[in-house]
Design brief:
Elements lengths: L1 H24 L4 H21 L4 H15 L5 H6 L1 H16 L4 H38 L2 H15 L4 H10 L5 H32 L6 H32 L6 H17 L6 H14 L3 H12 L1 H13 L8 H29 L3 H6 L9 H47 L9 H7 L2 H4 L7 E2 L4 H10 L4 E5 L5 E6 H8 L2 H4 L4 H4 L13 H10 L4 E7 L2 E9 H26 L1
Parallel strand pairs: 1-2
Antiparallel strand pairs: 2-3, 4-5
């Protein structure tokens, strides 16, 4: 009895706190709200990253807590933030376009389109049939059940480019599977839109909601797609000429973001999805200026993390768990399972039919499961088109199915690229420098000079080695100084003493040193700070025993060679596993 009272009291206290927090946070202005969103999302993504779970999952969980639990983010706020959501989707589309260069399509283009249609139609058919059967068993209404199945099937074909691409970028993936995933998620929204337009027309006829003719719907759809592509292409040409005419590195980010904002803003006027025109903008720049565009995408990539965090937190805040009827839960399960089955089976069939590499056949399906903005947008559109009954049911099923796929989908994307061996194959020099220690790249066989070696013997060492930097050690291999070519030249200026000089007489003091366990990034920053071409490496902080030399230029060459090797290996894996 006492325990029951305690539980009841605890629940009542939690509800009181939630109501109070909702009233307090409901007064937040947008600047303060974004402060909470980005701070909470950054913290949540970091925690989940430590747990070896994709960061996007942490952002979504934080969004659920801020939205559904504490009411910090209300549905009205989410609706008012639609321009930001559209910009975030445009930014994601732009960065995906960076990956879709002409050589990629020339190599994989046929495979991409076959798999695209196979996986999209597979999800459409399986979800459509499954949802229609369950709805018919529950309601007994054949026409409305088929209408529901058609709409849910079309929405199920959509894949979230944001969550999927974010995982690929987080784990630096590169290879045939990564290329296929990026191409398909970039084009999948257009296919989903085509399927939705056709399905919505048939569903309206079945549900008695009326609507436009099939011919008018098809013409409108083609107009939207062509218009989006033309808009993105023209913006890409504009950005190309701006970057050519105004050669100022400090203006690259401004020009790129302004063109992207123009694309997103113009696409919002007729209510177009901004992903396709923004992706076309990215593709145009990536192919018109292949080398220069790397700097453009690099700057935009550094700008984008806070935008991604806020976008995924807001996606999590969309979830509403308290409005589900019992039979809707069953529909959510059917929708989710059928969508997974359709995507996996369709991807496998398309990959096999098109002769795609083995890794694409095996793992592409599980990399296409995340769902977010486009699916939710189509669900909301369906809610407006089909009225309170059918419309609200569609929104709830899609929202909850999307939530499940946004939680588990990124984990499966990570599993797929890991099994395919593509994790870490798209690293940059900066990535490797951050991940390496000094011991990973130091020259452990660097030539050293004994402290009692005469000058003429030192010259023999110089003539038989290519180094210009020689640590001087004592009999116990402890570092006592450094000799460089410049030091020897100075000694020859005084011929009277050169004949009896030893290494310890010529050596200069050590300006700085490091240890094998120190981070390479820190060591290289210190070398730049003190203008050092080389730095001796000793065994430890409390030991002067020489174990190697860190050469700045040689280190950069090693790292560049490693990056090229990884990328070459990733590009060749299709030939090996195909």
């Amino acid at each position: 009895m006492v325990s029951s009272i305690f539980v009841f009291f605890a629940i009542d206290m939690i509800n009181t706190v939630i109501i109070a927090s909702s009233e307090v946070f409901g007064q937040l202005n947008l600047v303060l709200l974004f402060g909470f969103v980005i701070l909470g999302g950054a913290f949540g993504s970091r925690v989940f990253q430590k747990l070896n779970i994709p960061q996007v999952v942490g952002c979504i969980i934080v969004g659920v807590v801020l939205g559904e639990v504490f009411g910090v983010i209300s549905p009205a706020m989410i609706e008012s933030l639609e321009p930001f959501t559209m910009f975030a989707l445009g930014l994601i589309g732009f960065m995906i376009g960076a990956e879709l260069r002409g050589d990629v399509f020339r190599k994989y283009g046929k495979q991409f389109f076959i798999i695209l249609f196979s996986q999209g139609i597979g999800a459409f058919l399986l979800v459509g049939v499954g949802a229609s059967l369950v709805a018919w068993l529950v309601t007994g209404d054949v026409r409305n059940s088929i209408a529901l199945g058609l709409v849910l099937g079309a929405i199920a074909s959509a894949t979230a480019p944001a969550a999927t691409a974010n995982v690929l970028w987080e784990y630096k993936a590169r290879g045939p599977l990564t290329a296929a995933v990026l191409a398909i998620v970039a084009l999948d929204d257009a296919l989903a839109l085509v399927l939705y337009r056709g399905a919505a027309t048939g569903a309206k006829a079945l549900a008695g909601a009326g609507g436009e003719s099939v011919l008018a719907t098809t013409g409108l759809l083609l107009g939207e797609i062509i218009g989006a592509v033309v808009l993105g292409f023209l913006a890409g040409v504009l950005l190309y000429w701006l970057l050519k005419l105004v050669r100022a590195e400090d203006k690259i980010l401004e020009f790129a973001l302004s063109c992207l904002l123009l694309v997103v803003g113009i696409s919002m006027i007729p209510g177009l999805d901004p992903i396709l025109p923004a992706m076309t903008l990215g593709i145009t720049i990536a192919n018109l200026m292949p080398r220069e565009s790397k700097g453009v995408f690099g700057l935009v990539g550094k700008f984008s993390p806070p935008v991604y965090i806020a976008f995924f937190v807001l996606a999590g805040a969309h979830m509403e768990f308290g409005r589900m009827a019992g039979w809707v839960v069953g529909m959510i399960v059917v929708y989710t399972l059928c969508r997974v089955g359709g995507k996996v089976a369709g991807s496998w069939f398309g990959a096999r039919y098109s002769g795609a590499p083995t890794v694409v056949r095996k793992y592409l399906g599980i990399c296409l499961l995340p769902q977010a903005g486009v699916a939710i947008g189509l669900a909301i559109l369906a809610g407006q088109q089909f009225g309170a009954g059918l419309g609200k049911t569609i929104i709830m099923i899609v929202m909850m199915g999307t939530f499940l796929m946004e939680i588990f989908g990124p984990m499966l994307v990570k599993l797929g690229i890991k099994r395919a061996g593509e994790v870490g194959m798209n690293v940059t020099e900066e990535d490797l420098i951050k991940s390496y220690t000094v011991g990973d790249v130091m020259d452990s066989e660097a030539t050293s000079i004994a402290q009692d070696l005469p000058l003429h013997r030192i010259l023999e060492v110089f003539s038989t080695t290519e180094s210009v930097y020689y640590p001087v050690i004592d009999s116990q291999s402890r570092l006592i100084g450094i000799i460089t070519i410049a030091d020897i030249k100075e000694m020859f200026a005084n011929q009277d003493v050169a004949g009896w000089l030893l290494a310890c007489d010529v050596a200069e003091g050590v300006l700085d040193k490091t240890t094998p366990k120190k981070g390479l990034e820190e060591a290289m920053e210190r070398m730049l700070r003190y203008d050092l071409e080389s730095m001796p490496v000793v065994a430890g902080d409390d030991s002067e025993k020489l174990v190697g030399v860190l050469d700045y230029r040689k280190t950069l060459r090693k790292i560049s060679a490693e990056v090229l090797q990884r990328r070459k290996q990733a590009d060749e894996v299709a030939l090996v596993l195909g």
